[in-house]
Amino acid sequence: MIGKENLQKSLGIMIIFMLIAAIFIQGKTSLTDEDVSVKDENALYKVLRHNEEPSEDILQSDTPNEGDETDLYEFNVMEDLEEQLLEEEQIIIEEEPEDSLKMDLEFNSDNDGEDVFYIDIDEIVEEMNGTGEYVFSHEQDKENKTIEENKTISSEAKSDSIDNDILKPKTIMDDSGRVSIETNFKEGEDIEIFKEENVVEDGIIWKKKVKVYSEEHFDRPLRVYVDIKEGEFSNFELSWIGEDNILVDVLADETFGLELHDTDGNGFYDRISWLVPHLSEQNFEITIQFDLNSGSDEIGLGIIDAPTGTITGQERLAFDFNVTYNALPALLCDFSLLDSYGQAVVNNSEITIINQSISPVNESLINDVYLWYFGCWDDINSSIESKNLTGEFEVNIDYSPNISFNIKNSSINLGDNAIFYINISTIQENSVIWYNLSFGDGTSKIDMKVNSKSFVSQESYNYSQSGTYVTKLSVWIVDQEYPEKSETIVVNEPTNSQEFDVDLISPTNNVKIDEDIVNFTYSASHDENIKNCTLSLYFYNNSNFANLVYSGLKEINKQSAVVSEDLTDFDSGKYDWDVECIDTSGVKEKSNLRSFEMELNKSKSYLVSDSKYESEIKQVEELLDRINDFLIELESYDPEARESVEDLGFVDGLNIEKKKLLQMKTTLQTNFGLADEQKKIMRLNEIMDDIERISDIVPLEVLVSDNSEFTKNTLNSKIEDIISDYMEAKNIKLKGSALNRLTEINSELQSSVKISTKVRHVSIEYLSKNEDLTLITRDIDFKKVSEKILEVIPTDIVSDTMEINIFSDHSIVKEGLVEIETGNLKKNKLIYTIEGHVDLKQIESFDTLAFNERVIDSSGGGLISAFAVLEDGVGGKGFWFYFSWLLFLVAISGFFIFGFKKTKFKKLQGSSELIELNRLIEEGKSSLEYNFIAGAKNNYRKISALYSILDAESKQAIYGRIKKLRTEIDKKDVSTFVQEYMVAISQGRKEDAMLLYGKIKILYGRIPDKYRLKIHEKIGPTLGTLYPSNDIFRGCRNNM
Questions:
Q1: Looking at the structure, do residues 161 and 191 belong to the same domain, yes or no?
Q2: Confidence band, pLDDT 50/70/90 cuts, at residue 894
Q3: Mean pLDDT, to the nearest integer, of 349-356?
Q4: FRET partner for 562 with CA separation of 20 to 30 A, picked from 104, 152, 202, 493?
Q5: Residue 711 shares a structural domain with residue 858
Q6: How far apart are the first and last CA of the chain?
Q7: Strands 47-50 and 105-106, sheet pairing
Q8: Above 90 in pLDDT, residue 61?
Q9: Pairing relation of β-strands 594-598 and 511-513?
């Protein structure tokens, strides 16, 4: 229902619109001389509302006195409007069409009576004249009373319209039909206003939070109505939560116009209202403290903070409750958190309440659905009713790791080290990270990290033969295996290779030695100077596998030399030794491997030198100082240089290396803390390798000499050409509508992508070298889902794509075209470097295409996929036509394969490569029969190298025999590991057991099912000592 006051306001607005319309449309309005008394030449109209006859102190009669300070035009809305508008005398308003006229309305509803409006000239002159708004000139010439528009019109007045300045009251009702918000809206204004209320505490202390907001700015006050809890209270607070969470006391500020309401007349306030100054968002908090002496003895519980819904982030979950009661010391409370099986994850019993706020748990949880319970009772007075709260939530966190695997150079010369970069990170707490790096020649490297969320490693490897090798990285986190990563590396024969010989002299092969001191002698000769040689010694220690126990480097610096070295303090048992030399150009040559056996009367601890590590500790400390100096100096860099350092990954990488160095220092200072000297020497060699590696990668200074920025989503190349190049490189054929549809879809996708690019010339100074790079950082804003991006690099600018180092997992599709899955981008950034300083302008010719390879084909309703695209080029041929041909081809193929396989294999066996492979396979099988696993593995390495250079037909012919040999080697390996594992478990050597368990697990997936079952039955019962809650073999066993 519209109230009387609202009706009167509406009528007032209507009369002003009618007055203005008459002035603008008819161009003249008649007023008698008695109606107007003008005392100032400059005036504006202001309409005042009255609901009674003018009082004596304002008007002495129907016509205002000329001596009064108030000049009024009187209009009787109900009776005199038409007559007043048609009088003889004219008022003419001259104005330009785009100008607008402003009028202010004031209302007074003190009295009932006829609706009369007055135009007050003098009052508006005082308020508005000279402000830059409309100003009118009035002349007292009865025959020609003209109002002329002053030309000093403000830009604000020009932009407003009469309609937009007229406010109408608006009431917003809540769901129960009660008034929720009152305010005034402009004509035609459409702004949605929302109010949210949330009781956060319900007890002796009662709290409610109120949020009032709109999506658009609302610059006028509005009155907000909010329900409160009834009762006698000793304290009432209403706070406005301002910027920086500063609380403003509403009660102390009269401009908020706070009102308390008793809507049901029971003597208790149940509603309040106040003025909110403006929006888009304002927050308030109501706090009521009820009188303990007048209220009940009820226990009050309230939720301050507790998880709800589905939790997808890894933040720690907090539970916070408010407890109110007259006798808090008498209260006891329980809190329980149960998983989906009803098992208590947290169980806090009989919590004593010492204040009104309690936080019983703050726990990090695994993925599951959880139910929580919080209840309190009076432990002294059992007549008081206990109270409890319950809730439910789900934890569903994506623990998928980020795995990066790259090769520094994908093409190297024989003798050069291949450098592999491994970066594994996961958000899962207390992870056990394993990886197996297979170098593609039959050898591999296994490593593990316990209780860690990241694993960063740089591995170097020297291939013994030239060829093309596919390196593979397998990763396990806890008991989950993740997709394998692979990279290809080409090892070339060195150009102008010269004769390089390394020969072992003594001890001779398979000799038995009973002396305490053993002399090792070898010779090395080369056409160029030999830089140094390294003697390596391996000890089997009653195992089938030898571990490196000594590595001694000798400087040569001449073309030939005979080197002799004495070592002492051996243990009894079998040893292997070899020598590797390197010339001044970096070419390496390794001798054959020799074995000998020590037969001593007593066991001794193997010791090469005394256990003093002061020099090593000093090297570690110097490296730590270099890293700290760089990170401190980084603070003084300008923003461009700092951002470049971060994009290059130096900050995160150096912090990781600092942790490693600190661990090395502790290990050296505590004399390794290991019982036997073998492990000391092995660990010392690892530390020295790490010191050398870290020393090479710590920058001394990073400079940015030039930079530029640009934003674009357009391409220099045609999208159709990029897609065609991609499909051709992938050996996928698209024809006709399929290619057109794929181009169309990806053109739309590209138009929705915004790509901001920063390009910088960066110079990095290291201790032993300097490096110039062009750093490209692309910030990609995806408006639509994109599976991957294709980076197009012009080959006339970068001739070798391998010169580009991309910091996200990627694959090179072809020269000049790189493919990156969007899921591998960190914060939607593509960052890469190019060797040398490339012209910054040339980078703008690089293209970045957002690409969906799998899209809907509108013509057939099917999918266009990079894996399979079939297109009917003839027309009219249905499914069964092609299916029948497919069956026929399968049958024919089977006949040829079955009928000619043996004949073909015999023919292929005539090639020299296959003859050599068969010989190596037979030799490897013979080695396994005599339990000589090392010999079998050596043969397998040679087989892998030879296999890599075969043609596809030969590979297919020999693959089955090679795989069978690999399986037999794996079976022998895993059997040995299981035996050593059981010994380690029985002796309580948990660290050794975990290392062996990792090796077993890697081999476990490669052996036949029946052997898996035997292994599980043997070691499964012992796994509880390593991982109490996990059974890594469960999934494999269930699949048998």
A1: no
A2: low
A3: 54
A4: 493
A5: yes
A6: 77
A7: parallel
A8: no
A9: parallel
- How high is the pLDDT of residue 410? 87
* Residue from 533, 628, 639, 531 nearest 586 by CA: 531
Residue-averaged pLDDT of the chain: 73
Give me the residues paired with residue 487 across strands.
Answer: 471
* Token pair in block for residue 293: 């002496």
* Residues in Cβ contact with 474 at an 8 Å cutoff, skipping those fewer than 6 apart: 435, 436, 438, 481, 484, 1002
| pLDDT value for 103 | 39
The CA radius of gyration of the chain, in Å to the nearest whole number, is 44
Distance CA 671, CA 668 (A): 5
pLDDT in tens, 967-1006: 888 888 888 888 888 878 877 777 778 778 877 877 777 7
DSSP line for 949-961: TS-HHHHHHHHHH
Containing structural domain, residue 333 = 300-395
Phi and psi at 385, nearest 5°, equal: -70, 130
If phi > 0 it is left, if psi is from -120 to 50 it is alpha, else beta; for residue 731 that is: left
Confidence of residue 354 (pLDDT cuts 50, 70, 90): very low
Q: Is position 724 within any domain?
A: yes
Widest pairwise Cα distance in the chain: 142
Q: Encode pLDDT of 815-860 as tens digits.
A: 889 988 887 788 888 999 998 999 988 888 899 988 887 543 433 3
The answer to whether residue 841 is domain-embedded is yes
Residues 51, 161 within the same domain = yes
In a domain, 869, yes or no: no
Q: Is the domain of 721 the same as that of 828?
A: yes
Element (H, E) at 772: strand 770-782
742 inside domain: yes
pLDDT of residue 42: 33
Q: What pLDDT does 775 receive?
A: 94
Whole-angstrom distance, CA of residue 219 vs CA of residue 282: 12
Burial of 816 (0-12, 13-18, 19+ CB in 10 A): buried
User: What pTM value is reported for the model?
Assistant: 0.32
| Domain endpoint, select from 653, 675, 699 | 699
**d(Cα 776, Cα 830) in Å, to the nearest integer?**
8
Contact 31, 45 (CB under 8 A): no
Domains of the chain: total: 8
Q: Are residues 36 and 114 in the same domain?
A: yes
For residue 237, the domain's CATH number is 2.60.40
User: With helix as H, strand as E and coil as C, how does 570-585 read?
Assistant: CCCEEEEEEEEEEECC
**Is the pLDDT reported for residue 880 higher than 60?**
no
Average pLDDT over residues 502-518: 87
CATH, residue 434 = 2.60.40.10
Final residue in a domain of this structure, among 241, 259, 290: 290
CB 369 within 8 A of CB 316: no
Whether residue 487 sits in one domain with residue 442: yes
Average pLDDT over residues 267-282: 87
Look up residue 38 and give its two tokens: 């003008």
Distance between CA 439 and CA 1001 in Å, rounded?
19
Q: Quick: pLDDT tens for 709-734.
A: 988 778 888 888 888 888 888 777 76
Alpha helices in 782-878 (DSSP H): 840-843
Q: What is the DSSP letter of 681?
A: H
The region, left, alpha or beta by phi > 0 then psi within -120 to 50, assigned to residue 771 is: beta
Same domain membership, residue 480 and residue 515: no
Q: What is the CATH number of the domain that holds 377?
A: 2.60.40.1220
Residues 414 and 381 in one domain: no
Q: How many CA atoms lie within 13 A of 639 on its CB side?
A: 0
Q: Which of 320-324, 399-403, 440-444, 898-902 has the lowest mean pLDDT?
A: 898-902
3-state secondary structure 443-466: CEEEEEEEEECEEEEEEEEECCCC
